[in-house]
Amino acid sequence: MSCDHFTTQQESVYDGREHGLFMEKLDVRIRNHDREIEKMCNHHFQGFVDSITELLKSQVTETNRRLQDDGKQLMGSMEELQLCRVQQRNIATTIDKLAHCLPVLEMYTRLQEQMRAKRYYPALRTLEQLEHTCLPRAGQYRFCSIMAENIPKLRTQIRDTAMTQLRDFLESIRKHSDKIGETAIKQ
């Protein structure tokens, strides 16, 4: 077919009633193709939606898993921190209690040393300081109550030991007074 023949047919379609018929057929064909495209899109659209939904589910699941793991680590760290804080409070309380108890123990040790050294007057002063100052500050510990119960016994022991030593000293002087007097007169 020549180009002139094609142009003549094309012109004849646009010239008359055939143009309206051609346009109707063209519209029908366009609608058919649109329906086919829509069917194809609908068919593939559901697969697309399913794919997106599956992708979102896997992303949500992965994000949830990571959050759970991170949450477990955070909870573990928080529990460790809480334990550390409890230990810190316990240590601070222990240090505070020891700060009150150490002077009592030091005072009692000094008292024992003074008694061994037969320094009874300083021992009585230390005993009084222990009874009226250190023990009341220390608190309600068993060793403090035992010490408090022993204070009258210790006081009596110091008094008795001091009196015994004084008697021994006076008796020794009485026994040796003749010799001492004789030596004094010679000099």
TrEMBL record:
What is one GO biological process annotated to this record? Golgi to plasma membrane transport
Which InterPro entries does the entry mention? EXOC6/Sec15 (IPR007225), EXOC6_Sec15_N (IPR048359)
* One GO CC term, this protein: membrane
The Exocyst complex component EXOC6/Sec15 N-terminal domain covers 25-185
Q: What is this protein called?
A: Exocyst complex component EXOC6/Sec15 N-terminal domain-containing protein
